[in-house]
Amino acid sequence: MLISLYTVVLASPLCGALAPQGPWDAFNYSPASKTVRPVSVHIISGDVRGAQGLVQNSSAQATLSGNSSYVVLDWGKEVGGRLSMNIDNATSFSEFSFSFTESPEFINPNHSDDSCQAVATQNSDGVQSFRAPLATGPLTQTIGQQRGGFRFLTIVSNSADPLIISNISLAITFMPHWDDLRAYPGYFSAPDPGFHDMDFLTKLWYAGAYTVQTNTIDSHESRQYPCQWANNASGGPVDGPILVDAARRSRTIWPGDWGISTHTAFASLNDLLPTKNGLTVMYTTQDSTGALAYSGPPINARGSDTYIAWILITTYEYYLYTGDLTFVELVWAKYTKALSFLESQVDETGLADVPAAFSSDWARSGGAGHNSAFNALLYRTLVTAADLATAVGNSTLAAAYLANSTLIKAAYNALLWDASAGLFRDNDLPDSIHPQDGNSLAVLFNLTTSSAQNQAISQGLTQFWTALGPLSPELNDTIIPFIGGFEVQAHFIAGEGERAIDLIEREWGYMLYTNLSVQSTLLEGFTANGSLSYRAAAGYFDDPTYTSHAHAWSTGPTPALSFYVLGIQLTTVQGATWSISPVLSGLPSAEGGLETGLGFFGVKWQVEGQTLSLTLQTPAGTEGVVTLPGTGPLTVDNYVQSTSSGSVELEGGNHTITRQL
Ligand SMILES: *[C@@H]1O[C@H](CO)[C@@H](O)[C@H](O)[C@H]1NC(C)=O
Ligand SMILES: *[C@@H]1O[C@H](CO)[C@@H](O)[C@H](O)[C@H]1NC(C)=O
Ligand SMILES: *[C@@H]1O[C@H](CO)[C@@H](O)[C@H](O)[C@H]1NC(C)=O
Ligand SMILES: *[C@@H]1O[C@H](CO)[C@@H](O)[C@H](O)[C@H]1NC(C)=O
Ligand SMILES: *[C@@H]1O[C@H](CO)[C@@H](O)[C@H](O)[C@H]1NC(C)=O
Ligand SMILES: *[C@@H]1O[C@H](CO)[C@@H](O)[C@H](O)[C@H]1NC(C)=O
Ligand SMILES: *[C@@H]1O[C@H](CO)[C@@H](O)[C@H](O)[C@H]1NC(C)=O
Ligand SMILES: *[C@@H]1O[C@H](CO)[C@@H](O)[C@H](O)[C@H]1NC(C)=O
Ligand SMILES: *[C@@H]1O[C@H](CO)[C@@H](O)[C@H](O)[C@H]1NC(C)=O
Ligand SMILES: *[C@@H]1O[C@H](CO)[C@@H](O)[C@H](O)[C@H]1NC(C)=O
Ligand SMILES: *[C@@H]1O[C@H](CO)[C@@H](O)[C@H](O)[C@H]1NC(C)=O
């Protein structure tokens, strides 16, 4: 009895198998322990002795003497959580403060980077002060006091008297539901010989995964709003982890961000509980019109059609990745009501006319009217709603959703396609721009009618490119990796893999290596000249310290590398059926995989001379289609196929396939 139970447990894919070990593990940014220590002393100012001891060992003491003496400790990468240290000696006058920053540009003994309110004076967060008389012995930040995201900690003596401290460490609070933060079920590795760092793509894949981990927080540890330095607000009426927008700032559900971050969480971590909890929160926000909120508590913003659509689309993605039909059934009445709300905006043109009051999006300008991004999202919502309606057993409704989606696609092409530009316009007004968001989403969500149209858009989007990535026509002086993540996918779908890699190298190559940032997690956005003054004139009030350095909406390359360079896609729930169709993208080889409840899906391919060879591993009992580029027949497990089509249907298991390029 006991033995068979043991066998069942071992065989269960729900155990959460780990990805195979390999050289890629060196690029996993996640720490081996949930308690981390600083890795170096970055700056010493004034009379500070023994600072190096804080890095080296838990019993070595450091002494800060004299008012305003300080030490800056570098934790080596983005971290977040509750600090502990020992106060070994203090007089009745000794005092000190902590200040924190993600960017080394904003290290300052008098204030932290801003995490709640953007102000031009850059000092709304200030410092966290510990006043006299200090108790000697261990000191630990409360949950409220914790810093959600930082790389540099400044400890400042605020009195003339000496202060002796030791044993500083940080208890990481993100990913509260995981014991081993490095236990990724997915992996990715590919050399990038064309770039200054051959390991760039592998590092970036892991940087995206780690960014999502830092944005996965306990639902009771959101940022208080209205603003105060207190990370003990409720992020919504659920217990457990939620997937939020940023590690340091806001720490609130913004469901549009899931259009990227949920896929990253799936491809790297197979961790969909934080998305499920987030969806649960957002469905509690429905009002009598059917509308849902634009953000979760405590901010509770309202007024975004696009973000409502993303909630509905993410409901589908959550179902696709997990097969959790019970959850779909639980929210189905609210889901259909929210979709009716969005559809009620469709007018006689066949497109939705976004009311100004619902035109908020990723902070871009001008989202009202027959907006391209929203109508692309509405199309995707209806197509996926049809699948969900089928899953809950309502085929009549599924057919009606599909019929409505067809009308939107036709109107989208009739009203918005600009053949002379080879791009969609943002709306049907005479002075409309050609947007980065609407065009990227149109390709991603199949609003196009031919591969030639996809290729035109892929080409057309390059007109916005700079050395650091596309300058978005939708918002002045802005490079926006959230939308960049959709554009990367659009190039892969258009078959322009080398262009997708080029874009990744420009935009994410900048973010991952710039010494303005944390070199581990990914920036929310930046300006044309690479500065941190993202949205300086669009809501961030000239406060570059407000910009987030760990923003899960910027992690698009992680799932894109898994879904397009490895080419692994689920075509039905959990990958019961799948397709494997790698886009070679000018790379010599790639390998990696991802996991669902059915098991592990792994791909390894390489180009040698004119031969492409691919090995794959998929769970027993599944089936799918492998499509390889090239010419001539495929050789599958040493048998030459009779047709010269590049596609073959296969049962789950291990296979080796080759084709001539
Ligand atoms: C740790 O610090 C203590 C106190 O400075 C010192 O005696 C000890 O040698 C250090 N241990 C290591 C391993 O460096
Ligand atoms: C603690 O500090 C006081 C005042 O500076 C000093 O008299 C005392 O010797 C110190 N004790 C230790 C254990 O360092
Ligand atoms: C970043 O690198 C540049 C060029 O190497 C250097 O001038 C600058 O001081 C560095 N900035 C920081 C904050 O380290
Ligand atoms: C939340 O944290 C703040 C700042 O640390 C603290 O003042 C407040 O008492 C905390 N609230 C609760 C309910 O714990
Ligand atoms: C420490 O210095 C700051 C400004 O440099 C000053 O405002 C404060 O009064 C000083 N504190 C003590 C105890 O000397
Ligand atoms: C150092 O701090 C850690 C974490 O708070 C604690 O577990 C450990 O006992 C402390 N060690 C010493 C020597 O104080
Ligand atoms: C299908 O959905 C429609 C619209 O919500 C509803 O009126 C109808 O009763 C449903 N049919 C079934 C079989 O559930
Ligand atoms: C399809 O669109 C029409 C017109 O906008 C709307 O009245 C109808 O409710 C939609 N059907 C479904 C199933 O959403
Ligand atoms: C794109 O939409 C067309 C119908 O407009 C459909 O025939 C085609 O299969 C879709 N492509 C994908 C990849 O879903
Ligand atoms: C766009 O941003 C640049 C750089 O901040 C600024 O010089 C310019 O005036 C802005 N243009 C508009 C139209 O706001
Ligand atoms: C970069 O752009 C920002 C925002 O437009 C501006 O404030 C800053 O002065 C620029 N920096 C340089 C070095 O040109």
TrEMBL record:
InterPro entries found in the cross-reference section: 6-hairpin_glycosidase_sf (IPR008928), 6hp_glycosidase-like_sf (IPR012341), Bac_rhamnosid6H (IPR035396), Bac_rhamnosid_C (IPR035398)
UniProt GO MF annotations: hydrolase activity
Domain Alpha-L-rhamnosidase C-terminal: 578-632
Stored SUPFAM superfamilies: Six-hairpin glycosidases
Listed GO biological process terms: carbohydrate metabolic process
Keyword terms of this UniProt record: Hydrolase
Hydrolase among keywords: yes
Pfam families: Bac_rhamnosid6H, Bac_rhamnosid_C
PANTHER family in alphabetical order: ALPHA-L-RHAMNOSIDASE SIX-HAIRPIN GLYCOSIDASE DOMAIN-CONTAINING PROTEIN, C, PUTATIVE (AFU_ORTHOLOGUE AFUA_3G02880)-RELATED
Name of the protein this chain belongs to: Glycoside hydrolase family 78 protein
Species whose genome carries this gene: Mycena metata
